[in-house]
Amino acid sequence: MVAALDAALVRAGHRSLVIGVEGSAVSGSLIPLPRVAGAVNQRARGIVAKRVAATIASTLERHPVDLVHLHLEDFPVCLPATGLPTLVTLHRPLDDYPRTP
């Protein structure tokens, strides 16, 4: 999903910044996150969400951005505080998410 969107944005002449795991193949610019070693569990997901949130914040300080697309389950932790338009891809039924982030 993210790779297809990234590629389509770049083909259309837009700049695409992708925050992803080190070594990810992107059409735009990769802003790398280190891999979290160990099992994929709630603790690891929390660590990743906090790293993504910090990386989003620092990226928004360095680059002009028109839209943030969050494609992870723990998106409420990562919502930018800037008021930028944000698109979220949901992975579970809507009722599984908090009403207010």
Describe the structure.
The chain is an alpha/beta fold and 101 residues long. The chain has one domain (2-96). The chain contains 3 helices and 4 strands. The chain has helices at residues 2-11, 42-62, 75-78, and strands at residues 17-21, 29-33, 68-70, 86-88. The protein has a two-stranded parallel sheet with strand order 1-2. A two-stranded parallel ribbon has the order 3-4. The two termini are 24 Å apart. The model has no long low-confidence stretch (mean pLDDT 89). It comes from Azospirillum thermophilum. This is Glycosyltransferase subfamily 4-like N-terminal domain-containing protein.
Brief overview:
This is Glycosyltransferase subfamily 4-like N-terminal domain-containing protein. This protein is of the alpha/beta class and 101 residues long.
Label the overall shape.
globular
What is the helix fraction of residues, given as a range? 25-40%
Determine the structural class based on helices, strands and strand pairing: alpha/beta
Percentage beta strand: 15-25%
Q: List the helices and strands in order.
A: HEEHEHE
Report the sheet with the most strands, covering strand number, pairing sense and barrel closure.
2 strands, parallel
Q: Low-confidence segments, ≥5 residues, pLDDT <50?
A: none
**Arithmetic mean pLDDT:** 89
Taking all Cα atoms into account, the compactness measure Rg is 14 Å
Span from first to last CA? 24 Å
Strand order, biggest sheet? Answer: 1-2
Counting structural domains, the number is 1
Number of separate helices: 3
Extended strand count: 4
